[in-house]
Amino acid sequence: MNMITRYTHAASVTAAVFSLMILGNAAFAQEKVQEKPPTPAQADSNGAAAAISDQKIEAFAVAYRQVDKVRQEYTAKLDATSDPTAKQQLQTEASKQMVQAVQASPGMSVDEYSAILTAAQSDPTFAKKVQEKLQKSAPAQQ
């Protein structure tokens, strides 16, 4: 039963990770728009955003960069593939890789990553704080 619970949890985190891809693209590339507005359930996380420490936001930033590397790699693969079945397989692989990237990040659990992601999606002020942390801690590539 624990394995089923973990799989179900990983699937929900995967959905959150794909939401992050949309959020990341909108926030940093300004090329894509978030496909769906926050749900009422996400509004409950506004209070949780205030309770998230700077340390956790820094850990999130590290995990985010790892997830973003996976996203970039798989976006290129998905763009190069026209077969719907192959695309689905690539999306499944990408999801697993993203979850593993979060799990491998020090000081960040999948639950925490998901909570910070949800808070950032529902609270524009918190999203700005997270974005600033990502920009400050990003390696200089420009």
What do you see in this structure?
- The protein has 142 residues and is mostly helical.
- It is built from 7 helices and no strands.
- Helix 1 (2-29) crosses helix 6 (110-122) and helix 6 packs across helix 7.
- It is elongated and about 45 Å long.
- It starts with a helix and ends in a 5-residue tail after the last helix.
Task: Give a summary of the structure in a few sentences.
The protein has 142 residues and is an all-alpha fold. It has seven helices and no strands.
What is the alpha-carbon Rg in Å? 15 Å
Major beta sheet, specifics? none
Q: Outline, from the CA principal axes?
A: elongated
Low-confidence runs of at least 5 consecutive residues: 1-11, 19-46
In N-to-C order, the SSE pattern is HHHHHHH
Number of helices: 7
Q: Which class do the helix and strand fractions yield?
A: mainly alpha
Number of strands: 0
User: What distance separates the N and C termini?
Assistant: 48 Å
Helical content (DSSP H or I, runs of 4+): over 70%
Mean pLDDT: 74
Strand content: under 5%
